[in-house]
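W.,

You were right to be curious about this one. When I first looked at the sequence I had no strong expectations either way, so I just let the prediction run and decided to look at it fresh. Below is the sequence, 543 residues in total, followed by the output.
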Amino acid sequence: MMLDEINEIAQRQREKETGFRHRINVCIAAGCLSSRSDDIVAAFEEEIARRGLEKSCRVKGVGCLGLCAGGPLVAIEPAGILYRGVAADDVGEIVDALPGSPLARLHCPRETPFFQRQQKIVLENCGWIDPTAIEDYIAADGYQAMHTALTRMTPEEVTREVSRSGLRGRGGAGYPTGLKWSTVAKAESATKFVVCNADEGDPGAFMDRSVLESDPHRVIEGMVIAGWAVGASRGFIYLRAEYPLAVKRVKAAIAAAERSGLLGGSLFHTPFGFDIKVRLGAGAFVCGEETALIASIEGRLGRPRPRPPYPAESGLWGAPTLINNVETFANIPPILRNGSDWFAAIGTEKSKGTKVFALAGRVRNTGLIEVPMGTTLRDIFFAIGGGIRDDRTFKAAQTGGPSGGCIPEEHLDLPIDYDSLVEVGSIMGSGGMIIMDETACMVDVAKFFMGFCCAESCGACVPCRVGTTQLHRLLERITAGHGTAGDLARIEDLCDLVQNTSLCGLGQTAPNPVVSTLRYFRDEYEAHIQEGRCPAGACKLGQ
């Protein structure tokens, strides 16, 4: 395929869209589908056909519209009307309202902080394009950046542009993306690989899943560009089998790209070719770690190995391997389309661009959001998130999943970036945020996350295998009312040991929820041990 063919497809698709007076976009991402939004699509199609409106109204399934708390969601374009909590029985009334004012009882105004405070780069197509139609992605400037990279830029120029953008890996560690790319590019090997880490295992996290469900071609395009930059001709998307909808759409997108000549050999009539395969993970949290992920792709037990050598030097089958997560690759096409200076102008000095977060827990507006780096926790939770449900009081937020920490109210004005979160005892992680109110027992919260890490430990090293188990037992004892005065000292010593002697990131970060809750909510631990009570009335002592 050549550029003029891409432009022709884009023009044809745009004309097709604008030819309809009303475009009815129904969210068909996992959240809304779980509320039977597929029935809503069918009901709209049936109603439009019954009224003979096929030439003026188009019904289309689209990706995540963000406000999961309001699903199923339906958007009417170009009027800009959004409906929430839609059921198949509401379809007739919505069609009746198409020519005039929105149906009041279902209307969800877009002039609210949830929508207005966001800046979408990764999610710019979500809710607008049909994730199953490559033509929709091409009409949204899809594969333009790939064409530019492969036909007008050298691999070195692509890597330099990514480096200048300041993009850091969105998988959690925040390693400079351009630096990782240049390391793989400089490695001397006839065979190299690009791997997309889509093994999103944090409780409450659904960022990568939503991107793959809503805009899979974006990730494919980013991977091809990365392959060109580092000298790799093969890629793998490591995706957990627990995400069947994402798996289905990614595989369909790969097949569509292959049919269109956008994957395979001689891309854009150049000597460069690139292929992508999907590898399914069985849901092991530890396989989010790079070396364990590599072992799993190779068909071995998903266990980490000591580093060095790092995957950039010796990864898949011993070859240099570039590993980035879904959101990192999704940032690449807009960076090349708009320029590194554009991206670098967003965010903070050391954390550029935007970040996608999954808001979960006790916040009113649960869902998927994207905000500039440097946005404060207060803005995210109270402006965008709409505050705490049931008029309760904010208590803490867990960021970074089991590897992160609990952040108390005193740090609500903290600007979100990689370094500031570390300073208060948490991490960015992949972007999960679980918000808690005053009914949460922080000892119980620490126990929950430690139990998760304990169950997910691969058992390869003693500090993680035994240390997390002992920590969980101590926390269980405290929440059951059997804690002793010496338990807190034992917990702190164990946390230090596990953090500093574990083999991989799972063990090294597993104590973070315990350390952070001890730092900010030590009085709750002491109340459990010294007074035999749970201040929140949540764990066994409060029942």
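Here's what jumped out at me. The longest strand covers residues 354-361. And, maybe more interesting for your project: The chain has 23 helices and 13 strands.

Coffee later to discuss?

I.
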